[in-house]
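> agent: user asked for a holo structure of the chain below bound to pyridoxal-5'-phosphate. Plan: (1) validate sequence alphabet, (2) canonicalize SMILES, (3) run complex prediction with ligand conditioning, (4) return tokens. Step 1... ok. Step 2... ok. Step 3 dispatched.
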Amino acid sequence: MDTATALRNPVQEQTLDPDNWESMRQLGHRMLDDMLDYLQHIRREPAWRPIAAEAKQFFDTDVPMLPGRQEEIYEDFRQFIAPYPMGNIHPRFWGWVMGGGTPFGMLAEMLAAGMNSNVCVGEQSAMYVEQQVVKWCKQMLGYPAGASGLLVSGASMANLTALIAARNHHTANLARKEGLQNMEKQLVLYCSTEAHSCIQKAAEIIGLGAAAVRKIAVDNNYRIGPDELEQMIINDLAEGRQPFCVVGNAGTVNTGAIDPLDELQAICRKYRLWFHVDGAFGALAKLVPEFAASLKAIETADSVAFDLHKWLYMPYGVGCVLVKNAKAHRDAFANAAHYLHQFDRGTAAGPDSLGNYGIELSREFRGLKVWMSLREHGLEKYAALIRQNIEQAAYLARLVREYPDLELLAPVELNIVCFRFVRPGLNAGALNDLNREILLRLQEEGIAVPSSTLLEGRFAIRVAIANHRSRMEDFDELIGQTARWGHKLSES
Ligand SMILES: *Cc1c(COP(=O)(O)O)cnc(C)c1O
């Protein structure tokens, strides 16, 4: 026995790679074929189906201690998991604001998973792909080339990241060094009552508290009132508080309203406030010439948050935050550690660590699906699809207006339509109950998946179209079925 052998532990070493690569390869090909078949024929499936009790029981089993057969595990996926998606890959899914992904995007995800990159630091291709995708994101929105940016899990994280930069910049990083307890004045942030709940959540997370969020009233078009905003800022200043940031909506989640961004921008300049735009889905409407003017102020905003998994139809989850002042962005997050030292050669070289621009350190390779998808279709195609969704929303609004028993509940500016079934003689509460029931029937029957909201106390069936698979006739079907259920339920 030589020394090396003697020093080695005689126990057989193990690995997680397959014993039989050939059968793994076969199974992999089958999975790919099955999934492509499923996507190709998704229109035949119900838009949603309730999860069978048997499947739910299956999700209740304990942690497996011993190995299972891959084929069997995949069979369970086919039986218990695949049949019960959210529905957002379906042509008649218009709930919340959700994108449907694409087959090529799925393949890109598979490639990224194979590389298993940790895209935080290093001289590795993924770092350059992400850099290029951020550059493309700036170009999409006409944002300054010198701005910094980061791909994150979604718009909630993008908004949070931007607000941290805003808070730290405004306090000259005192918030970073000492926390908020030594702050002389309470920091205050402004948005409209229609701002997404993640803005308040971000304010809570970064130590400002919900009380620091001023929610300004909106007009009949669900847009923020700039005069009320300015008055509120003046009051806060007079009472010794410190306004620091205004969040404008480029497409509100309820109705798709676009705040008067120019006016918000002007107020921010006047009072030296950070101007942030939450453009989770709506920012991308800037690609459509009709919206270029109302969204132009995004180009000069201090920061903007938007999603690529909503209106750019990328597989979940990927959003983007852009910050005009790259130094302020970096100063808000950068820190140093010996184990993260960057060299100018070797594996630890490469672009500036992405950990200096956000919360995460280890990061998945989110950029690849964006990089491959944008190259697959080109930006013009995405612009055409966004316009198509906007036209579909306008078409649906016309159908609602023309149908005697349906009522439009909010102006349709972008891709969101809020409406309800009406029945003379029913009071407000009964109408809300009726429309909730109609919505649930549409979902449970697998016809379509709108979601809901409450607009001035009125229950709205809410259709948000960020779906490249929807066709005009899908909206005819929605209207027909809504009316059918409305009559059936109100006459029984
Ligand atoms: C969806 C949405 C968000 C949150 O985005 P996530 O990707 O779900 O984190 C924030 N703001 C608006 C306006 C949205 O529509």
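> agent: step 4 complete. Summary for user: The first strand starts at residue 93 and ends at 94. The pocket of pyridoxal-5'-phosphate is lined by residues 97, 154-156, 196, 198, 251, 253, 278, 280-281, 307, 319 (CB under 6 Å).
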